[in-house]
Specification:
Elements: E1 28-31, E2 34-37, H1 58-79, H2 90-115, H3 120-137
Antiparallel strand pairs: 1-2
Helix pairs in contact: 1-2, 1-3
């Protein structure tokens, strides 16, 4: 048994007869010597997007936070971009809009997967990136051109 009551690093199922040392179910399981968290936690010991990365290295953890931040900002930029000009070829405009949509959704999924590390720092930089991106690219702070529609409709929750 490991310190969380699991056997050989495997997560316990609700119907299992084993329990952890404090009588509650395990909140995560070990993978490759690192704890996979299933609740929010603070610290650099996280797995973000790739196996073994950042691997407890402080510099790589900061790099991971910077990458998540800029992906969040870029999502907001893509949401409010105007690349297709009115009167453009409809097929070309449709292809450009489709590519922008795929890029935006792909980045949004990557940010979501990074958030699934349950690391508090990742959560905060993702929120900050979306907030700053929206402030500069999508809010009233930015000069609005009402006669030019956005290439992509806004993402909705």
């Amino acid at each position: 048994m490991d310190m969380h009551g699991g056997h050989d690093g495997m997560a316990m199922t609700p119907n299992s007869s084993s329990s952890s040392t404090n009588g509650t179910m395990m909140r995560g399981h070990k993978m490759h010597g690192m704890m996979m968290h299933m609740t929010f936690f603070w610290g650099k010991d996280a797995l973000i997007l790739f196996d073994g990365w950042p691997g407890g290295n402080s510099g790589m953890y900061v790099l991971a936070l910077i990458i998540v931040f800029f992906m969040s900002v870029f999502i907001e930029l893509l949401s409010d971009t105007r690349i297709v000009k009115p009167g453009s070829n409809p097929v070309v405009a449709g292809l450009v809009q489709t590519l922008l949509h795929v890029l935006r959704v792909g980045l949004a999924y990557l940010v979501m997967l990074a958030l699934m590390s349950f690391n508090g720092g990742v959560f905060l930089v993702a929120l900050l990136g979306h907030a700053i991106g929206f402030f500069f690219f999508g809010s009233a702070f930015r000069k609005q051109h009402h006669d030019e529609p956005y290439d992509l409709p806004p993402m909705s929750c």
